[in-house]
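Appendix B. One record, verbatim.
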Amino acid sequence: MESGERKKHFWHPPLWKWALVLALLGCAEFLFLWRRPAAPVKVELLPFTDLPPAWDGSQPWMVISPIAGDGAMRFKVAIEMVKPSVRHDAPVNDFVVNLRNGNFKLRQTDLFAGEPQASRLDAAVDEIHDRFGTTLLTRASLLPRTLGGTGPPRGTRQR
């Protein structure tokens, strides 16, 4: 088809397209003229006198703990309401099963007890300081904090 014929057919679409346009205009007019309710429904809120429940976040858990002693390994099993926490007063060595959703965890806080050991990174940084001096490397935690997230100007050294 040539461009002249294409333009000619563009301005004279088939009859079904005109019918669709008229149907959509009819639907729009119906929705515009349709009677709405005179006043919105009024919702009455009743007074609430009960206090909200005091919940500390605890959930029912089945706690399985080993019992220290000689001979065969023995366990203590209890169902307790365990309050979520990250800190414990004593080392924990428990296997727990959440009774609400079936999650299970092995909790062992004694893995983190004891004297903190120097990491290999700290040992490497200390060795670099011994060989080349303390001005070569600076820990990021020792850099000054500035507003806007910009660091020290390029070419300057922190001492």
